[in-house]
Design a protein that fits this description.
The protein is an alpha+beta fold. The protein has a domain of 130 residues. The protein has nine helices and twelve strands. The strands form four sheets. It has a five-stranded mixed β-sheet. β6 and β7 form a beta hairpin. The longest helix is centred in the first third of the chain and has 93 residues. It is elongated, with a radius of gyration of 35 Å.
């Protein structure tokens, strides 16, 4: 009888121990899952902020190209209009020649029709282009401001709010606590400064510090490389003697300039230079305000633009200055960018209200060079890590003592939970990293090379990672319960 009662007592104690252990384990698993979800959500939010910045930077590049296309078309129309007037006038003179003059007369009539069409087209396009450039510039201003707001403000506040919300949705009694809030807050506050750099754009090519010009040149190089074929170069030869040459360059950080020329090239034997007779010219610029800005010598004071992508130097305006210097000189020195033959005013070829490149963020040198780290020491170079330290009261596990259904406190049958500080803690970390797929053709680069982290490509992602030893040591020093 006594033995049976003893066995029943031992069995009851075992059941209670098993129940208590199960309750604590369940609460621990719940808290770990909640911490994982919170850490991953914070990293996802930060990755979204970086991807948003990348999308906005790409949109700004596309808008800059749209400005270049707009003034390219107007400059080309000016040149074509001038060319039609010059050729029509020449044909009118040649029509006085006996016998064959009738042919020149017919051609002159055709060019007269073309001249009228081009004049009407230019007059209609000019106000539309002016309005479009102002609208595009305002869009870029809003895009730049929104990126700054998201990166420097909203993403930090949102991430902290998201961490608390996700944590409590997955484990209602869980909290970040003072230690968890301090750790996550520090990481959120320092992540931007460790990963990103904000570049201030000088107003002129020679303004600002060397560092500012270097950052501005990088943005301008991306824009210049992104130009479409028509904006980049409008150079071609016709009939073996008509030389068409033109192009559009961002000559300053806040100024686009387009120049188009056409000339009759008369080849001469060596060592004489060929004779170029200007027959058409035109130009256009997008500027902040009209100050009679010059067209020559062009990009880099005539040295042209060097492409880091192509590893070559491009001459100003698609080589218009080199090939048709006389026509280019008329546009610049004679201030005839807007078809003076048709009473066009030179200043009307300048589209105002364009403020150029705005300040932007990009990844610092030496950061986000690879999607994975070999050790904890190199992990910060991959991307920022965010740690969630969550804790909950031991009573939330609903053990027998916590629920008040066990033996009285202090009795010989009491089964205390013996939790440190009567708390359960969990620790989780997640990392933001950049990884543009190399194998998937839909997303890979054309050259199939691995791309390092930047804020012009939206390939920022998030993943859970092991909490590094340094963070664990800092938490332990602050009095955290190490799981």
């Amino acid at each position: 009888m006594v033995l049976g009662l003893a066995l029943i007592l031992v069995l009851c104690i075992g059941i209670v121990l098993l129940f208590n252990t199960g309750q604590v384990v369940n609460k621990k698993v719940e808290l770990v899952n909640a911490a994982d979800a919170a850490a991953y959500s914070v990293a996802i939010q930060q990755a979204r902020a970086l991807n948003y910045a990348a999308y906005m930077n790409r949109a700004r590049v596309a808008n800059e190209v749209a400005v270049a296309q707009t003034i390219s078309l107007y400059s080309w129309l000016n040149q074509m209009h001038t060319t039609s007037i010059v050729i029509r006038t020449t044909l009118d003179v040649l029509s006085a020649i006996p016998y064959i003059g009738v042919v020149f007369k017919a051609l002159a009539t055709a060019f007269k029709v073309a001249e009228r069409i081009l004049k009407v087209t230019r007059q209609a396009f000019q106000p539309v282009a002016q309005a479009a450039i102002v609208a595009i510039d305002k869009l870029n201003m809003m895009f730049a401001a929104s990126v700054q707001l998201v990166i420097e403000g909203v993403s930090r506040l949102d991430s902290y709010t998201i961490a608390k919300d996700v944590l409590q949705r997955n484990s209602p009694q869980a909290q970040l606590g003072t230690i968890g809030t301090a750790v996550l807050g520090t990481q959120l506050a320092t992540a931007e400064n460790r990963l990103l750099q904000r570049y201030s754009i000088p107003r002129t090519a020679n303004g600002g510090s060397a560092t500012q010009r270097q950052g501005a040149d990088r943005f301008r190089n991306v824009v210049m490389q992104s130009r479409d074929g028509f904006s980049k170069s409008r150079s071609d030869d016709f009939l073996g003697f008509l030389v068409q040459s033109g192009g559009t360059d961002m000559v300053d950080y806040n100024r686009w300039a387009a120049l188009d020329t056409m000339a009759v090239e008369l080849p001469l034997p060596w060592p004489l230079s060929d004779i170029d007779i200007p027959v058409g010219w035109g130009g256009a610029q997008a500027v902040e305000s009209y100050r009679n800005q010059r067209f020559l010598n062009g990009f880099g004071n005539g040295n042209g633009w060097y492409s880091d992508w192509d590893r070559r130097r491009y001459r100003p305006y698609g080589e218009a200055v080199r090939r048709n210097r006389g026509a280019a000189w008329i546009v610049d020195r004679s201030q005839d960018a807007n078809v003076r033959f048709a009473n066009g005013q030179h200043r009307k070829a300048f589209f105002t209200g364009y403020n150029g490149l705005r300040d932007y963020h990009d990844v610092k040198a030496g950061q986000a060079l690879q999607p994975y780290a070999e050790n904890d020491r190199d992990r910060d170079k991959v991307g920022p890590v965010f740690t969630i330290y969550a804790e909950t009261a031991g009573t939330s596990a609903r053990t027998t003592s916590g629920a008040g259904i066990g033996a009285p406190a202090g009795s010989q049958m009491e089964l205390p939970d013996r939790m440190a500080n009567n708390k359960i803690a969990a620790l989780s970390s997640a990392q933001v990293f950049f990884d543009r797929p190399v194998q998937l053709r839909m997303f890979s680069r054309d050259d199939r090379k691995r791309e390092t982290g930047n804020l012009f490509s939206p390939y920022w992602q998030a993943r859970l990672v092991k909490t590094d030893a340094t963070t664990k040591a800092a938490l332990a020093a602050a009095g955290a319960l190490m799981p």
